[in-house]
Amino acid sequence: MTQRMTIEPVTARQWQLENREFVLLDCREQDEFDFVHLPGCVLFPMSEIGGRLSELNEFQTQTVVVYCHHGVRSLRVAQWLSGNGFAEVYNLAGGIDRWSQEVDPQLPRY
Questions:
Q1: What is the rounded distance in angstroms from the CA atom of residue 89 to the CA atom of residue 63?
Q2: Fewer CB within 10 A of the terminal residue: the chain, N end or C end?
Q3: What fold does the segment set 3-102 form as a domain?
């Protein structure tokens, strides 16, 4: 069964601290990524993701947490991944902006 859920930033950070295995997928554009991104993430811009599905197939059976700036694009990408057979996909609530407020205030905001 395919799942499509939302995950809170503090919960995703807890997963990292627990060394839980998951893919942190940044679906923002390259310039946003260059400005700030979460450590350990992989970049697959939403504008390119449809043409790069074969590159994402290695993550199909893994837990995937998708994030963007505020959580809107990542929700669409999470839905798309889920509809393309990805087993467990989460949208990071509030995106990197909320992460920078609740988890790591050292991250620059835009």
A1: 6
A2: N
A3: Oxidized Rhodanese; domain 1 (3.40.250)
Tell me the two tokens of residue 93: 């609530």
How high is the mean pLDDT of the chain? 94
State the residue for tokens 């350990």. 40
pLDDT in tens, 18-63: 999 999 999 999 999 999 999 999 999 999 998 998 999 999 999 9
* Domain boundaries defined on the chain: 3-102
65 in Cβ contact with 24 (< 8 Å): yes
Q: What is the pTM for the complete model shown?
A: 0.94
């979460």: which residue's tokens? 38
Dihedral sign computed on CA atoms, order 106, 41, 61, 69? positive
